[in-house]
Amino acid sequence: MAQIQIKLVKSVIDRPERQKRTVKALGLGKIGSTKEVEYTPQVAGMIAAVQHLLEVTAL
């Protein structure tokens, strides 16, 4: 599968607990943190759930 880079660009403050946990499960903490992950169906679903907080770049 392809690698993608995800970056947290908006805060998780005042977001539902489920979205906070999804961002943490993706390996992101503070605003501006980035992570390279393998693009799998599971990761795609997690990204879709919090896409308004993330910036996604294909590598």
TrEMBL record:
Pfam annotation, one family:
Ribosomal_L30
Residue ranges of the Large ribosomal subunit protein uL30-like ferredoxin-like fold domain? 5-53
Q: Supply one GO CC term from the record.
A: cytosolic large ribosomal subunit
What does the entry give for GO biological process?
translation
- The answer to whether UniProt assigns keyword Ribonucleoprotein to this entry is yes
Query: Keyword set for this entry?
Result: Ribonucleoprotein, Ribosomal protein
InterPro entries referenced in this protein's UniProt entry, alphabetically: Ribo_uL30_ferredoxin-like_sf, Ribosomal_uL30_bac-type, Ribosomal_uL30_ferredoxin-like
Keyword Ribosomal protein tagged: yes
Q: Which GO terms describe its molecular function?
A: structural constituent of ribosome
Q: Which domain of life is it from?
A: Bacteria
- Signal peptide span: none
Q: Which HAMAP family match?
A: Ribosomal_uL30_B (MF_01371_B)
Q: Subunit structure of this entry? A: Part of the 50S ribosomal subunit.
What family does the Swiss-Prot or TrEMBL record give for this protein? Belongs to the universal ribosomal protein uL30 family.
By what name is this protein known? Large ribosomal subunit protein uL30
Q: Per UniProt, what is the name of the gene that codes for the protein in this document?
A: rpmD
